[in-house]
Structures are given as C-alpha cells and as structure tokens.
Amino acid sequence: MKTLRLLSFCWIALFTSTLFAKTPPELKWRVLETDHFSIIYEKKHKKMALEYAKAAELSFKVLSHLFTEAPSKIPLVLMDITDQANGFATFLPYPYITLFPVLPDPFSSISQYQHWPFELVLHEYTHILNFYPVHGFYTPFKYIIGTIVRPNGFLPRWYMEGLAVAMESFYSPYGRLSSPATHAALRALAQKNQLQKESIDRINEVDIPQWPFGQRPYLLGSLVWQNILSQHKISIAEKLNQRFSRRIPFMLRAPAVEETGKTFPQHLSQIYKQLKRTTLKQIKKIKHKGREHLKAFHHSGTGQFNQSISPNKRYLVYTSAEIFKGGEVRLVQRNHLQESFSKKNFKVLFYAKGVRALSWLPNSQAFLFNKTDIYNRHYAYNDLYIYHLKSQKTQRLTYGERAQSPALSPNGEQAVYVQLSGWKTVLKQIHLKTRKVQTLYDPGPFKRLSSPTFINPTTLVFSLRNKTGQERLYRFSLKTRKATPLLPHFSSVSRPRMTSKGLVFISSRTGIPNLYLSSNLQQASAISNTSTLVADATWDPGAKEWITSRLTTEGLKLFSSRTKAFSPPHISPLFRVKKASPLPSPLKTKMPSVTEKKYSPLPYLVPRYWIPFFYFVEGGVWFQGSTTVSDPLGKHTYSLFGSFDTFTQKPSYALSYVNQETPVDLGASYGKATFVAANALTLQTQSANVFASFFIPSLSNNWRMGVGGRYLSTDLPSSKGPLTVKQAGPSIQLQYSNAQEVDPYPFLGGNQSFYIQWVSYRKQKDFLAYDQLNTQFSYSLKKPFPSRHNLSWKIQTSLAPQLPTAFIPYLGSTALGGNYLASLINSSHIMRGYPSGEFYGKTLISSNLEYHMPVKDIYKGHLTDPYFVKSLSANFFVDTAWVDGFFLDKENTFILTSPQKAFWGLGAELLLNMTAFYHLPIGVITGAYYGLNAEANGGFQFFLGLSFSGLSQVTQKPSSQATWKGL
After folding, report:
1. CA dist 376 → 321, 462, 658 (Å)
2. pLDDT confidence of residue 515
3. Cα(636)–Cα(336) distance, rounded to whole angstroms?
4. What angle in degrees, to the nearest 10, is found between the helix axes of 221-231 and 157-170?
5. Taking a C-beta distance cutoff of 8 angstroms, is the pair 381, 373 a contact?
6. Using an 8 Å Cβ cutoff, are 265 and 159 in contact?
7. Between these two residues, 361 and 108, which has the higher pLDDT value?
8. Residues in Cβ contact with 320 at an 8 Å cutoff, skipping those fewer than 6 apart
9. End-to-end Cα, the chain, rounded Å
10. Strands, sheet with 326-333, edge to edge from the N-terminal-most edge strand
11. Nearest residue to 946 via CA among 918, 927, 919, 929
C-alpha cells in the first residue's frame, strides 16, 4: 500500500533526494588510501587519482594549521561523469567529498586557477572543516542523535561559500577573489549603484532572478570575508568557527561583534563603500584614456555570447538566456548588408545548454555547435551538432565525444574541437562527411586548451593555460602537429578568433579583460577600453563594426562599435587579497604514502544519525525518527523509520533497501503502518515488497519499467473480533516523464508524465484475490500564457472492480482534502472542499485542473534573520471525483454512489515561497476550498499547510560553476 511510500519515508526523501545520486553501474572503482583521505576513483583514472591524493594531503597540511579539528579520514570521490567542473561536500551520513574533476570552462567564474586539483579540494575541504566542530550544549546530542548534529552546517550560504572562496584565494596566487572577472563584476555592480541593493539577506540566495544570479553567496559572500581578513589575522576564521559550533543556530551577531568588532552586515556595508570609492576613481582613470561609442543590442535576456556572422553576411547567431526560461540560440537576419545587426530583432532557433561556439558552414545555410546532453543514461557530455536553417532541423555528429568549442575549416569539410576529460583537454579533428576523428595535439595533464580558430587552411590558433596558471596564445600547424607561442608578451588571454580584420582575442594584461587586435600576428593593440570586461567579439564586414559581448549589471550583453585604437590604463585590483606566506607549491609537492585496494561499500553502511521530527496532522501529532545510509557511490542505500501518532496511539516502522550495483535497480522493503480508514477506524497494515526497476532498452531516459511482488496483511475491525485480510501477488509498472528535458526551459511547458501500475493479488487460502490498476497522467501547458503562468491537469485512477463491497471502506481508494505534507489517510488522490477520507471506492477517478500564476516578487529578508521571502503565487483549481463505492453523509453514514455521479470542488491557494533557516526551501500554502456537493459534507474549508522543495542544500555545499553568462 502507499502508506509506507507516502508517509513513512516522506521526511527521509527530503534529505536524500539528491544526496545519493546513482553512479554508472559499468564503472570499476578502486581506492587510494592516504593518511587523511580515501580517494575513490574509476580504475582507469589512477594517474589522475594520484594527483588528487597529492592535492588532498596538501590541502590538509595547509588547512590543519588554521582549523583545529578535522575528521580522521575523509572519503573523496572522483566522479568523471560530467563536462561541468563542480564538487560538493556533505556531513550526512558522514563527512565526504565528491568532485567532478573536468577542468573548468574558460568562461566560468572559477576559470582563474593555478593548480585545479589543489584549489578544488581546498574549497571543498574547507566546507568539511567548517562543518565539523560540535561543542557546548550540542555535545550530548552529538552522541544521541549522531552526525546530523552539525550547528555550523546551518550557517548562511554566504558565510560558508564566502569562507571557502577566501581560503582558495588565500592559499593560491589566483582564486576567485583575485580574478579579474570578479573585479569586473564588482565594478559593474558598483558603478550602477547596485551593490548597496545586495543586502546581506539577498546574498544568501541562489535563485533571485537578477544578475549575478547563483553567484551571490560566492561573489558577495567572499566580500564579507575579504573585509574581515583585511582587518584581522587568518586565524579569525577558526575563532568564529569555534564560536558558532557551541551556539544556537541563526544567532550570528554576538560572535561577529566580539571577534571582529562589527556585525556581518556592517562588514558588508564597509566593503561596499570602499568598492564604490575605488570604482569611481578607476572609471575616471579609464575614461581619461578614451571613451568607447557603443550601441546596445536592445534584445531581452542575459548571457549574450558566442556571436558569429555567416559568410554571406546576412545572419548573426548568438547564445543567450532568458530569466525563467533557459539557454537559447538566436538568429538575427538583415536584408541590407550595411545595416547594423543591433537594430534588428531576433528569433529563437532552438534551446540548448552548454553551447560554447557557433561556427558557420561556407554556404551560410547551417552552422556547427556543441551542446550538453545526457549520454548513455548517466553522463552529461558535450557533443557536436549541425543546425540547418532551411529545414530547421538539427543533425547530430558525435556521441559521447565530450566535444567543446568547435571551429570549421575554411572549406567546411573538417572541424576542430576540444575534447574534455577528467584531467586534460585534447585538440581533435573530425571530417564532417566520414565522421572520422583524429587526435591533433595533446598538451598533457591539467593543461587547458580552449577556443581553437583557423587563421588559414593549415594553421590554428588557440589559448592554453599551463600548470602554473599562465594562459597564452599558441599557433598550431596541421602539417607538423607542433604548437609554438604566439604573441608571447600577452598573458591572461582567451577567446582568440580570426576575422577579416585580423586575429582578435581577450587579454587582462592591464588588469581588465579588454579586446586586442593583431593584423600581422606580430604585434597587437587594444581596440576596447572597458571598465568591466569584454567576453567575446567578432567583426561585421557588412556594417564595418565590432560586435562585442560585455559585462553589464544585467550580465553579458551585445554591443556594436566602430574600430578605434586605445591605450587602456593599468588598473589595480579593487582590493588587496591577503595571501599565505609562503604560498603552497602543489607542483613541487611530493607524492604522499598511498596504498591501493578494491572499493568496498561495507564500511560506510553503519547508521550514523537519526532525524527526529514531528508534524501536526488531522486530529493529533505525528512523531517520527528516521535515518538513511549509503556508501559514497550510492550503490547501496537503506532507510530505517519509526513513528508514533497521538491520534491512533499506534506505532509504525519500516525498513527499505536499494541495490544499484547493476543496470537493474533491486530493492526490498518491510514495514508496519497505522492509518485511519472510514469512520475514524484505525487500521494496521504489514507490508513486504520486492522490486526491480530499469530503463527500457532503445528508449530514452524518460521511460522506466519496474516489476515486483508484494505482500499485505491488514487487521480489520469486525463484530466477531479482529479480522486479518491478507493479499499477495506480482506487480508491474511503466512510467514516463519528460521533466529532465523540459525543466531547463520551464517556460516552454509540455511537461508530461505518465504512470501505470498493475497489481494482481492472487487467490490462495485465506488470501483476498483481485486485480488493481493504478494510473496517473499529468500535463503542464505554459504557452500561450504569460511568462510564469501555466495550466496543468492531472487525472488519476485506481481501479479494482473485483474488490468485494464489504472491504471498500478498508481497502478501497480514498482521497485527501488538501496537500498535506504528512497524513494518516492512505491516499494520493486530492479532493479539496471535502474532509479527508470522505470518499471510498473500488474505483476512484480524480481530476485536478489548476491554473498557476505569479502574484508578487518580493525577494526580501531582514539582516541575518533566518528567513527570506521570495515570491507569492496563486493557484486556482477545479477538482472532480468519480467513485464506485461510498461517500459519508453528515451523520457519517455510508451512502452508495456510482461513477455516473461527479463530485466537484473548487477554490484558490496562495503559496508564499520562502527560504527558512538559510537553506530550506519551503512554501506556506493558504487555501480557501469549496465543495459543491453538500450531501457529501462539501462546503467551505480553510487550509494551511507547508511544502518542502528539498533539503539537499543543507547537507551539500557545492562549488559554484555558474558562468558570467548566468546560464
């Protein structure tokens, strides 16, 4: 029955929905044991694992001088299944780190690094050490409740991420606080008076729909720490860490004032004022060297980038992103070649993620690009595609190639691209007709090659970042397969591109990323003088102007300008970042002592914590305790649950286990549950289930199938004493959901899901026999409604025509009167405007038609108080139910009804979206419901409830990989 699934594990699911992501079952895993880390890696990546072992032990060495407490050993998983550099650290069920080790995208906020393994591990290990201390009145709870008692794990995002960014900047010559891109972003905000609007309550949030979007805790949280560290020794981080480890969470003022002399909001305000003064001086200095005459593209959206003009000069394509929408590839068309593209409107060609280059074919009727998609069920990889303008169709060229930044040869027959992997980038070439791929150049581990471009049919130029963090231009001969430095006096370069004017590229040699032009490949001069940064540029030979992508207070936007030479002044960083002395030397670090062994999940499968929880339900209070345990690779997961409620005065308990070692997920569960049936009768059910779940061969990840078997034993009241009804039989189910495809572009609508399950309770001695069919279909339509409006419909059926009428009140399907987080009613049908448990049927069909719309964007909190109000939205609905069974009248008498009669409910809900306790996304639901069928106790009902979006943000602290594009 659904009691266990909907009730027993509702709280566990909130904590573990993303905590234990499944790893590809075909991978073979090994472990390198060092003194302080267990490096868990894919067998073929041993050399990479050894480098991360060095980086991890170096991170421990430098941070152990600052933080006084640390776990004895940390599991560190190297998971090379995505082309997005990232990582997370968690304290549940035990402290561990997972890293996605691919080298960072050159256009991300973390692109300025020296030694990527060291800085990545350092950031995440800072989180572990930040989480770890537990003292004061927490100490006994640590031994009673377990590892969930981590008061520092509930500090604000800006505190934790700002501290980690500060540490990566303190122990590295680079780091985000030292990045020219960071200082460009701060200048953009400061000169438009946007900094002061980013109050300390706002910088905790990652989903405010304004630039800098999800960067707030990292970019602006690190400013709080920058201001603190500029006035105190680095040891202040550990002093604050220890203070918060013994205090009631969310009370931040006293430790900040006593240890630093100011509150955290005062620190933020102080550095904002400093940045404003410094920015105004710098802008004055920049303007003294000449002003640029720019024409803005008045196109909506942000992240405008990758602009490319067709050979016939009629088309411009570029990538962009719309708030509440997603990544777009846009086309601008002009009729007169001398007309500026900036004056024309755009149309969206298609939607895509991870596009890093658009390269036209010679016929101007198609272009080559890369995008990110799911490959082989489990991998988020980049591949190459061609889009044809005439047919408006996309042709896929590669599968699982991890191909980025493609560039076509002048004749359009070949293309070069950068192939990514966990610890290197390789230059490759593909023949478009034969699809033959060959390796051109392998610069070696941890060297980042990016943005290859043809300067003639046999020569390429690309940028290459070496192991020490220097990034320069290189010329590459296709004939000799050798790379030689180009314009070696230019450093910190990116995005080279060949145009009819010559080679253009971006360099931050003066402290600000400006655009440079080299017409002879011997010398180069600046052709921009920006106060923020130029991210990309191309020459328009028709209108004779440059089209540049520049950072603004709305993110990257397109501008056009005429050619003009500048001499940009040298601009110092906005502030001096304190550095360790001497700085660690990752490249000179000796290999620590390591031992290699096979990976075993068993040591991790010991319960480490339990979560106490209570919830007010209809007629009582629900108390429960639960725990979930998994190994770091998520191959084995089990959950334990126990509860007691004051309404039924009965306990419930459950155990479930899932094995994900193979392509087929195998699982089993057992539990005893108490719930309320008709006339407030208390029923107890014992349930045992086994199942196998798997993707369907040759179909997309949208489809999944499951088979299993179940046993149920339900104790029913009767005039002759308790009656036990037993049921057992096989089950099969099929489900479909396109949410993974649609969610990145939520404005499109078309979200569809479908579920069908058949259970056959077989005839045996003392067993009840009948078949049950459960189905659910939902659809969301967002066009042609305004942005963030949508119309959704869900229809759900439970069909058991063979169920004896006498058992309908106990074993039949019923409905809830509202969206309860937890309920003692065993149902997933919703029928608002009527009491929960009003309808009982062997057949129950429910329909929910809803219109959702935004009411008000708020995005406001109060200083460091642990709440933040985001938005208010409304939901108008019509619910309908058809029942073959009974409803209860006002005297609680069963009244027969049939599917020919429909029951109706309608009403409205207001949803207040909030962040509670700095991390927990919650919604406060207020509903006014009205049931139209008075004979079935319909009428006006008021509803107040909560919804949780998930708690993974509480237990996992990921590194931010959001790019300046805001994608």
Report:
1. 27, 30, 22
2. 97
3. 63
4. 60
5. yes
6. no
7. 361
8. 299, 301, 302, 303, 304, 305, 327, 328, 330
9. 42
10. 302-309, 315-322, 326-333, 346-351
11. 927
Return phi, psi of residue 168, to 5°. -65, -30
Q: Is the pLDDT of residue 19 over 60?
A: no
* The two three-digit tokens of residue 81, written as one number: 């299944």
CA dist., res. 200 & res. 767, Å (int): 62
**Which residue(s) pair with 644 in the sheet?**
623, 651
Sign of torsion over alpha carbons 739, 740, 746, 749: negative
For residue 301, give both structure tokens.
Answer: 């959206």
Instruction: Tell how far CA 101 is from the center of its chain.
Output: 17
d(CA 239, CA 229): 12
Most distant pair of Cα atoms in the chain: their distance: 100
The torsion angle over the Cα atoms of residues 32, 38, 42 and 48, rounded to 10 degrees, is -70
Q: How far apart are CA 437 and CA 416, in angstroms?
A: 9
- Give the three-class secondary structure for 695: strand
pLDDT reading at 749 higher than 70? no
Q: What average pLDDT does the segment 244-264 reach?
A: 94
At residue 560 the predicted structure's pLDDT band, cuts being 50, 70 and 90, is very high
Give the pLDDT score at 612: 86
d(CA 950, CA 194): 31
Mean pLDDT of the chain: 90
CA–CA separation, 780 and 851 (whole Å): 10
d(CA 209, CA 323): 6
pLDDT digits (tens, 9 = 90+) for 170-217: 999 999 999 999 999 999 999 888 999 999 999 999 999 999 999 999
Contact indicator for 656, 668 with CB cutoff of 8 Å: yes
Distances (CA, A) of 7 to 1, 315, 815: 11, 56, 15
| Alpha helices (H) along 497-545 | none
Residue 313 — left, alpha, or beta (φ > 0 → left; ψ -120 to 50 → alpha)?
left
* Mean pLDDT of the 332-338 span: 95
The helix (H) or strand (E) run that includes residue 808 is helix 808-811
In whole angstroms, give the CA distance from residue 232 to residue 239.
11
Whole-number percent of the chain with pLDDT over 90: 76
Summarize pLDDT for 504-519 with one digit per residue, the tens. 999 999 999 999 999 9
Q: What is the pLDDT of residue 719?
A: 62
Rounded to an integer, what is the distance from CA 604 to the centroid of its chain? 26
**How are strands ordered across the β-sheet holding 358-360?**
358-360, 366-375, 379-388, 393-396
CA 443 to chain centroid: 31
